[in-house]
Structure formats: C-alpha cells, structure tokens
Amino acid sequence: MSLIVNPSTLAVIAELRDTPLALVDDVVERAQRAQRTWARLPQRSRIDGLRRIAELVRANSEELARIETSNVGKPIGASRAEVSMVADTFDYYAGAIDKFFGQTIPVDGGMDFTVHEPIGVVAVIAPWNFPLAIAAWNVAAAIACGNSVIVKPAEITPLSICKFGELISNADLPDGLFQVVLGKGPIVGTALTEHPGIGKISFTGSTETGQTIMRSAAGTMKRVTLELGGKSAAVIFEDADLERVAVESTGAVFGNSGQDCCARSRILVERGAYDEFVKLFTSATGSMVVGDPLDAATTMGPLVSGNHLDKVESFLDIELDVVAPTEAPTGPGHWMSPHIVLNPPRDHRVVREEIFGPIVTIIPFDDEADAITLANDTIFGLSGSVWTRDVGRAIRVSRGLETGSISVNSSTSVRLQAPFGGFKQSGMGRELGMTALDGYTELKNIFIST
Ligand code: NAD
C-alpha cells in the first residue's frame, strides 16, 4: 500500500494498492488483445477516439489540474497549462494519423514502398515532475500509431494519470487499450521492461534509471526512447535585453520549483554584463512568491518530497557564495526558497550535477568560444537558451551547443509540434512532433515485382 502525500500540507490524499506482480501478465495480454482490435479499426475511428480523449480532458480540466497541484505541489496556473497541453497533444496526434505515410522508392524490376506498422504494446514509464503531460505525449503518439499502452507512473505522483484513465474509460476505446499499473520502479517497472509481450519502452526519468532500463530492455530487444536528465545553460551576451532576460530566467530556473529537466540551471553571462545581470536577476527572484500552490498569486510551490528536498539542499556547500532573496513558508510542507550561487568553481558539483531543485549557478564567461566550451562541459545535452541581438552569433552558438533543443531569446523548450529529446546522456530518440511517430512504429518495406 502506498500513501500519497500533498507536498504543500503533508496531508495524506490517497492510499493506493500496488499492482501485484502476478497480474502483470494479464495486463499485458489485455493490452495485446486491445492493440489488435485498435489497429484493425478504420483510420476514421482511431482519429475520433483520440479526439474524444481530448474532449474528455478539456471537460474535466479543472479537476485534473487540482489533482496535479495537490499531488506535485506546482502552482495551479502551471497545472492548468499542463492539462491544456495534454488535450492539445491528443488533438495534434488525431490530426497526424492520416498525414504519416511511407515512401515510394525507385527500383528496377518492380515497385518498392514503405509502410509504418504499430509496434504492439508500449510501456510508458513516467517521472513525477510532469506526471500527466509527459505520460500523455507518449500515450497520444503511441495510440495514434495503432499501439496500446500500459503506463507506470512514478510511485509518489500517480493520481492525475489514474484520473485520466478513469475519464477515458468513457471514450469508447477497446478495453485494455490504455491501462495503468502502480508500484515501485525496480519491481513493477522491471516486470514491464523484461516482459516479452511488450515491444517498446518509453521512459522519462533520471539518466541512472535510463541506463538500467536500457540494459533490461536489451534482453528482449525492446525498442526504447529515453528522455533523461539535464543541466541546461542559458548563455547571455552583453547585447541582450538584460531586464527581460532576468525576469524570464526566474521561470526558466525556478519554474516547477526547479524540478524541470529543461531548467536553465546554469546561467552563463558575458563578463561585462555579469554584475548588472546578477543585480537584475536577484531582484526578479526577490519578487517571487513561494507558498500555497492553490493561491493564484503563488509563483513557486514546495518540492515534491522530503527525500528530494534533502538531496537538493545537499548542494548548498558552505564554501559557496549563495543568495536567497525571498522567503519560503516555515509550516508543514517540503519548502525551500530559490537560491542563487554566484560564480562557483567550474568543477564544483553544483555546476556539474543535475540538482532538480530551486538552485541556480551564475557564471561569467569571456567570449563566444568560452561560452560554448563552458555550456558543453557536461554529460547532459537536453536544452538551452541563447540571448543576443546578433543573429549571426545566435546561429553560431546554437549550432555549437551539444543539446537537443535551443531557444534564442526565449526560455521555452517544448512545443508539441516540434521534436524534443536529448544529446549525450540526456537521452535517446525524440518525443513530440511528427518525428515521435517514427519511434512508435516499425518500418516495413514491400517490393512488388512487375
Ligand atoms: P526516476 O528515474 O527516479 O524515475 C522515473 C520512473 O522510473 C518512475 O516511474 C520510477 O518508478 C521508474 N523506475 C525507477 N527504477 C526503475 C527500474 N529499475 N525499472 C523500471 N522503472 C523504474 O526519475 P524521477 O526522479 O521520477 O524524475 C526525475 C528525473 O527525470 C530527472 O533526472 C529529470 O531530468 C528527468 N526528466 C527528464 C525529462 C525529459 O524529457 N528528458 C522530463 C522530465 C524528467
């Protein structure tokens, strides 16, 4: 039995039973049956099915957002935006089904063409920071391609995906097309990654767990998409609009309490602008409101759990120059205020490891080459920003950074129409956009002799 806790009050909000291992075979068999039915349905019926899911999410969006906020602790506005993106994702992939097609290939002696076939059953293993949105990206693309899905949410944040499952049981989909299993990663998660009836694992979580999953999936040659950790940089040049960058950067590093794989947790500033930027950023951070995530004025909620809070606080080495310009509540809850670490040694763990909490480092750089070297000096490569008014430099630096997505003069990382994923140890494969569909299908080549 797992107790699910609200991280801003520490109240127990649910008690859930883990899925017994003995049931996993039944879950997979149901998923296989559903998949065969789903893949044989007319394209129009599958498009309508995805549209109905989008409608059900929209019709219940406030309830889903409140569940997400009470389970994860994120501000209610952020949860509403997340739920809205979930509905949009199902609409997007409903529209993609009849626009994803193969090629006709010129060959001698006949006609050669490719078709995309579903993989079968896809297991989606999800993290706790965006429990509904990240699962939904995977689920929507997987079922659009004719697969069925089994979702295993993170142990501490299963509530929104369970509610989603309840809602879409009214979407008139084949029984077992979407199922949720609950429990610990190394137990129920491993039962999925090792199961011969599952064809693909879509995993989002830490790099360490990603390595374990890849090893485990190798036993049955499962396809894997891995969306892993990050240590993204915002590279800020002197000619940028520093006031705007400072304000937007607070969201880019402290949004979701810094528990964001794309958090720009390293801010690199051209030396001539360093002092001015530190002043502006400290002042913008001082205006953040840390508190009750259901209050519309709140800009940052608690951290997700006590264990995670301890891990994040362990980065605050006494030797570091740290500023914390705003207060966090002192009552029950996993509270921590935003912390800014000024010019730490470049090899300190606060600069090198993923913190996944409200701690940012600000580091000066000398020139374009130094900025690129510094930004790339990490095992990760997920996201990043470049701030400059010089278009040539924006392109040069964007091309120089070893990372899956870059925003110029923006802090955003995810647009559901565009591919998203990591270089280096930030992952493998891409989610979102039309590109994701390649990861949920097998490519079949057919030759017809003439
Ligand atoms: P985690 O790796 O601890 O857990 C993620 C999921 O994997 C959970 O559901 C967990 O139960 C499951 N799991 C754990 N061990 C397993 C095993 N041996 N076999 C199968 N499943 C197992 O990650 P987390 O702490 O939930 O999430 C935070 C991490 O996720 C951070 O590193 C963050 O950067 C990363 N993340 C990446 C992205 C991205 O898109 N790249 C997005 C969000 C989060």
TrEMBL record:
The reply on keyword Oxidoreductase is yes
> The Aldehyde dehydrogenase domain covers which part of the protein?
4-446
UniProtKB keywords = Oxidoreductase
- Show the stretches that span the lipid bilayer: none
The record's listing under InterPro entries reads: Ald_DH/histidinol_DH, Ald_DH_C, Ald_DH_CS_CYS, Ald_DH_CS_GLU, Ald_DH_N, Aldehyde_DH_dom
Q: What is the similarity comment for this entry? A: Belongs to the aldehyde dehydrogenase family.
Q: What is this protein called?
A: Aldehyde dehydrogenase family protein
Instruction: Record the organism.
Output: Longivirga aurantiaca
* Lineage, highest ranks first: Bacteria, Bacillati, Actinomycetota, Actinomycetes, Sporichthyales
